[in-house]
Design brief:
This protein is of the alpha+beta class and 499 residues long. It contains 12 helices and 17 strands. The protein has 2 domains: 3-323, no CATH class; 365-466, Elongation Factor Tu (Ef-tu), domain 3. It has helices at 3-15, 71-91, 122-135, 149-164, 175-182, 195-202, 210-217, 232-252, 255-288, 294-315, 327-351, 353-362; strands at 19-20, 34-41, 44-54, 61-64, 96-99, 108-111, 117-119, 172-174, 183-184, 365-374, 378-380, 386-388, 391-396, 407-410, 413-426, 429-438, 457-462. Strand 5 and strand 6 (108-111) form a beta hairpin.
């Protein structure tokens, strides 16, 4: 947590209302997202018991497992959930668009839209990934065959869960994390995992402070947990007796009794899920009120690329994702996520002065005034060619924790790249000598305005493309300890033929 975020939390606690952390929204909110509120038994995360889902606030669909230990009923639940999710996906696979050829990519087609799934919190997001792992390997033939929609659901949920780890992705998003990107509450980050308590600070009811509303939201009778685990008190006092009634009716062969017990269980889950369902749409409305950045549109394009690619993979008979990555694949994936995080952080800083101010307090960005400039400076390449290498100096009072050689970019000049040539600490601050490395033209034809004028105020932060590309060996070239082929046993000297 940075200094400014900590300060915002202190101010929120003193004022009794959340403080803004961002002026814009950095992730896409689809016009019709699929909202899912899953529930599992407390203490048994692998057992689904209910889910409320839909694309409209006024017409949710409630799915219930009246006896969670009955495999057939669980499969019926999963089949119904698969119908909803796969239908939402199929509706986004109807229209494609052509992406023109670029410098390093041929012309291609991609879907004009992509599905978006919203869940209340990070735990619910992780649960969908767990549900995908539990269903993507189900067999569609044999003695324990399941509906083909169930393994298809598992593949898609696994895809969404893996894509959700990609910074800035919006295909699967939890609302508590999105709200935390834009508001600082007066409670701890752990308490922010409760959607009702977080909304209490952001938008408290009239006549109540955020603290008062959050304390009221802790009452499970007024605000049931937003999942995925149910409240243990609800399980013991309400759900367990209803399930026993369902079992007695089933053992007695009473269809009327089974139907009555099912209706009572459904009504009980309706009461548990409806408050969270309403809170989710309230959170969506708050996020929609924030203007969306151009970067959000660009990142949504990357989500659509990923969605199109995985759709083609499944259409070609793609197998379920493996249970775990091998060592080289896991390292490569971690590298991609680190790069994506660096890019996302930089893009957010360029789009939002709040984020840039955060980076300035940590020394990862700075703002200052140009005190000198040499726009005609040239250099000699190893091949003996003269090139334009203009330099300018910025003086800043910000703490700078960057070393010479780091590549930087400025929100005011996004197409220009500079490199730190030297740093000097002075009584007035830090003098940073920057060398323009891209976007300055040639000695014969320098680009006008490529070098800032003396007196200009500029901000700079790290260039996310600065990191070098890592190359990882294929699996068959890694040692057996990291997923490669097993080592050959040493030969027995006694069996070696004597020369």
């Amino acid at each position: 947590m940075s200094m400014l975020t900590s300060l915002a939390r202190v101010e929120a606690a003193a004022a009794g209302r959340a403080r803004p952390l961002s002026q814009v929204r950095h992730r896409r909110l689809a016009g019709q997202p699929l909202v899912i509120v899953p529930l599992t038994l407390a203490g048994d995360p692998a057992t689904p018991v209910a889910a409320m889902t839909g694309v409209s606030r006024t017409s949710p669909r409630l799915l219930v497992v009246p006896q969670p230990r009955n495999r057939e009923l669980r499969l019926e639940f999963l089949t119904s959930l698969a119908g909803t999710v796969l239908g939402h996906i199929a509706a986004r696979q109807q229209t494609t668009e052509i992406i023109p050829a670029a410098r390093n990519r041929e012309e291609r087609h991609r879907y004009a839209d992509a599905p978006q799934i919203l869940v209340p919190n990070r735990a619910a997001r992780d649960y969908l990934g767990l549900l995908g792992r539990a269903t993507r390997f189900q067999q569609t033939d044999g003695p324990y065959a399941v509906d083909p929609a169930i393994p298809a659901l598992g593949k898609w949920l696994t895809f969404f869960a893996e894509r959700a780890d990609h910074p800035g992705s919006a295909l699967l998003a939890d609302l508590t994390s999105m709200l935390a990107e834009h508001w600082a509450t007066g409670q701890s980050p752990l308490e922010d995992s409760s959607l009702a308590a977080q909304l209490a600070w952001i938008d408290p009811p009239p006549g109540m402070t955020g603290l008062q509303a959050a304390l009221a939201a802790e009452d499970p009778l007024r605000c049931p947990p937003s999942g995925p685990a149910t409240d243990p008190g609800f399980d013991q006092a309400i759900l367990e007796p209803l399930i026993r009634s369902y079992d007695r009716a089933g053992h007695a062969g009473s269809r009327a009794g089974t139907s009555r017990a099912t209706a009572e269980i459904t009504a009980a889950f309706q009461g548990q899920l409806q408050p969270t369902w309403d809170d989710m749409w309230r959170a969506i409305a708050l996020l929609r009120a924030l203007p969306e950045t151009a970067g959000a549109t660009r990142r949504w394009g990357a989500d659509r690329d990923s969605f199109t690619s995985f759709s083609s993979y499944l259409a070609d008979g793609g197998l379920p994702q493996p249970r775990r990555d091998h060592a080289a694949g896991a390292a490569a994936r971690l590298d991609r996520l680190e790069r994506a995080q660096a890019t996302y952080d930089t893009e957010r800083a360029h789009e939002d002065p709040f984020i840039l101010a955060e980076l300035r307090t940590t020394g990862e960005a700075f703002r200052g005034q140009v005190i000198s400039a040499d726009p005609t400076r040239t250099g000699i390449t190893p091949a003996g060619r003269t090139v334009l290498r203009p330099r300018f100096t910025i003086r800043t009072s910000d703490p700078v924790r960057l070393e010479p050689g780091r590549a930087l970019i400025s929100p005011a000049r996004p197409r220009q790249q500079v490199q730190i040539a030297a740093l000097a600490r002075t009584a007035a601050g830090t003098d940073i000598v920057l060398e323009v490395t891209h976007g300055m033209g040639t000695p014969a034809r320098p680009t006008p305005g490529a070098v800032p004028a003396i007196g200009e105020q500029l901000s700079y932060t790290l260039d996310p493309g600065f990191f070098t590309l890592r190359v990882y060996p294929p699996t068959d070239q890694t040692p057996w300890t990291h997923g490669g082929p097993p080592a050959r046993p040493p030969a027995d000297p006694a069996e070696d033929p004597q020369p």
